[in-house]
Structures
1.
Amino acid sequence: MELSKSNAARQKLKVDYSNDTANTNKTKLEDDLKKVLTGDFSKAVLMLLEATEVFEAQILHGSMKELGTDEALLIDIMCPKNAAELKLVVEEFNKQYKASLKQWVKDDTSGDFAKVLDQLYEREEKDADPELAKSDAIALYEAGEKKWGTDENKFIDIFTKRSFVQMLATFKQYKEKYSKDIEFIIQDEMSGDLAKSLLTIAKCTNDKSAYFAKKLEESKPDFKDEKALRLYVVRLERTGEKDIKAFLEKLTK
Ligand SMILES: [Ca+2]
């Protein structure tokens, strides 16, 4: 099934469809599918044809636009992303709402948690440097375990600025040198949304697919609840082909 491929492949499929020489009226794939598909299956297919960042921007907007903020959603959408991925959502947010995602998040969060989210846009894209992994592991030890209290800023800087592969090397160093998992250290040293956001970054560093799979498991496709369905589709897109295929097959039964 063509539709269970990656979201990027589906975006290409849409362009190819309209540009196909046989498609003399240059119709859109979405529009033609709307004519032949019905019910939940049609809805699911059309949602999968949207670029993922369209829904992510809507989810982020929805998590902040009302009184109060859904911090868990901010964490889940933003923390797994590298700078380039985050940029796509920033641009989409700007396009849909004529507003700055960065400013919105800043206005809706506070303290150390705000600092984490605000620094995610600058994450480096570098290969792992073993020397840096060693010095970062020591820095994290001195900022956490070794210290009475915690130097949160040190943790935030390393967790938001280093590339994911660099952090993975650092966490391995930490485990070798101090025999402890960084996920344990975060929970031991910090709490609240700061701990949750850093923990999400650590989990995604250690095994992003496992993190995404667990999040998908936690949500259900509710076709009567547009918001919940969008979140489900976003999580489905992150886990990939196999899950998308299973989801669509279930709907055709
Ligand atoms: Ca400590």
2.
Amino acid sequence: MVAIKVHGNPLSTASMRVLATVYEKEIDHEFVFVDMRAGEHKKEHFLSLNPFGQVPALEDGDLKLFESRAINKYIACEYADKGTQLIYQDSKKMAITSVWMEVEAQQYDPAASKLGWELAMKPLLGMSTDTAVVEENEAKLAKVLDVYESRLAQSKYLGGDCFTLADLHHLPTLHYLFGTQVKKLLDSHPLVSAWIADITARPAWLKVLALQSQQ
Ligand SMILES: N[C@@H](CCC(=O)N[C@@H](CS)C(=O)NCC(=O)O)C(=O)O
């Protein structure tokens, strides 16, 4: 059987999201490094995988996909019998997990990604941080984290009693935010902090970080 191909860059949050899923599912895969500094993601070959010219992209035989969260849903369904169960078979349980997957994408990620860009990436690129953007998005993130704190008082993980894609999708942005002033905000939410400690210690996630450190 031909292994799936994950095209991406280990420094990209969206690529890390898919790699975490591939490692959780323990499926054979080929990681195709996309050299973003060389602009490979804007060249014809990559644009045939994702017309928006953004990593990651997935090839599974004839199937070509982009958008990290859609790729992860596909992998979790198609390889349901392998590795960690990242979704539920029960439709009501899955509906609840889907709610929290949407919360991650629509409420958490916009603020988390802006903070990651301002506080982690811009300093690395020698650009100056916009403090007004940081203030605005810390306030937005604080509201989301208050909701998470209540949710995690009722349920061990966001999507239910088991670790699912609803938790996994947070890992890359949490990783970058942990090295910034936002850690203080995360630490001020005890149940959120315990959840972060739990999900970031997963062996599959440590493999993603190991791959990243080889770059
Ligand atoms: N919603 C997309 C976002 C993809 C994305 O923004 N990828 C970034 C790296 S994390 C990228 O390729 N940026 C280069 C660009 O936009 O030109 C996903 O989840 O896959």
3.
Amino acid sequence: MRPVYHVAVSGALALAQWGLTGDRRAALWTFLSGTLIDLDHLPDYILNARREEIRLTFVLHSWELWAVVAVAAWARGGSRLALASVGSPVLHLLLDIWGNRVPARFFSFAWRARRGFSLRAIRTRPVRRSLPQSVWEIPRYIVANVFGPLRRPLESQALGKSPEYNTSHVP
Ligand SMILES: [Zn+2]
């Protein structure tokens, strides 16, 4: 799902939380954890530009990570703290599943790791978005994904270069 939607959803959630609980710090965490989670794509973009094969590690998009955070928060402050700690990132993952039409296992770190994080191995269907092919395309790619028209990737650029790029996917 495009980051601009995550900003809108997390922002609305954070404002509602702030209004209901008056807890500004928790609301700020809700906003930041629901939006900045997408920064974990940057290392992949940079590394994939120099790889033969596209790999998707995106560590923050992992059920396992948020399960550990939830358990740690629960042990420290009970179910309310656990919910406040992982509610927004979990909602982000659910929106990515819905928006990108990928199965929930796509966001299992262990599942991806077993497949070597290889896009070819974890891809479950043909997808429509291309990945940047060089470091210099990354800013444009980000701008296109945040402000560009819906589902209009750098596909025209990727056409003809490699079939993998034409059907690659970014959650
Ligand atoms: Zn995401």
4.
Amino acid sequence: MANPRKKVKRNLTDVEGFINFVSSPRKSKTDREFFEVDINCKTKSIRGICYDVDRSPLLQKFNKDQQSCLIMNAESSNNDIIINDETIVKLKEVDFENLTHESPTYTMEQVINECPLYQRITVIGQLFNLQEPTLSSIKKTRLREGSFIDKSNSTRPITFFQDDHINMVKERTSYKITNVVVSKYSSKKILQVSENSIITEITDSGDYNLPEQSGNCNASGIISMIELDSLQKQFFCKLCSHPIKPTSRNLFKCCGKIFTDIDVIAKTDVVFTLRYDDTTSRKFSCSRPLLDGLVGKNGNADEDIFISLLLKKAVTIEHCSKQKDDCFEVMKIKNRQDEASSSLLENEAIPSWQEDEANT
Ligand SMILES: [Zn+2]
């Protein structure tokens, strides 16, 4: 970072063209309301973000009437413009037609190596490893995650946020998707499908080298319930593996022998409910060390702390496909990526007044 005292220099710009799309108002991660517009300029289509929803009706009118306009003193941010309180929006005749310029097509390899962050792009390839719809941990809206592969044989995580997109996409199906935003999570570029992305199913050879997949399944959601009993240690006989209970003197009897606790197997399989969305949930059983790793405690954590760290956590799970005692056994568990990605716009375009705030 540069010297924090240095005032962020605003990069102001004038744009003229046709308003082609006005989004519904949404809330940013910091609870600020905003909406976005698409502007068809002479040679490209760009996106504008506006944090004053009272400016929406005029832009909607320009969109509806197909009238061109001039947007003066907007702020450049990445590939977008920000319509702020100093920006002037007014009618203006232009000498070009209202044409939507499709976002440039990038391969997954180019996304990884060349494509600038927050660029809007078109992708052509196949969806795989598509998860069930789930709830965003931050904004409690629905989303659906998967992976995207194309002819470059590289892959990227991809997330869908709109209900109609979530409901239409299918596993191992090829699509052309426009207006995908290149975002990042954990220093890794990811793809986010926009409200006005156009998803077209295509037929291609479908001959992709999908990465090797284990026989396990994936799930993601929010940990919504923990079975208290399952937090207790369970003991098993070392000889026959049967579950055994300690006697009042803390000894164990099995296979015609009496053991001390040194000679029995002790483990804790925590049983919890993972909520996928409002209507779907599943029960999982997970060994305590995996959960200790997830919450960053080494097993010595106080039980109340352990529970509070775990509940409401958004996670992605790799689990066995077969159920045992109503539960799926967890093989891997990690924090879910949408923690960052669901904050869609806040990441893409930070107005300089926000940077100013951050720097004071
Ligand atoms: Zn035994």
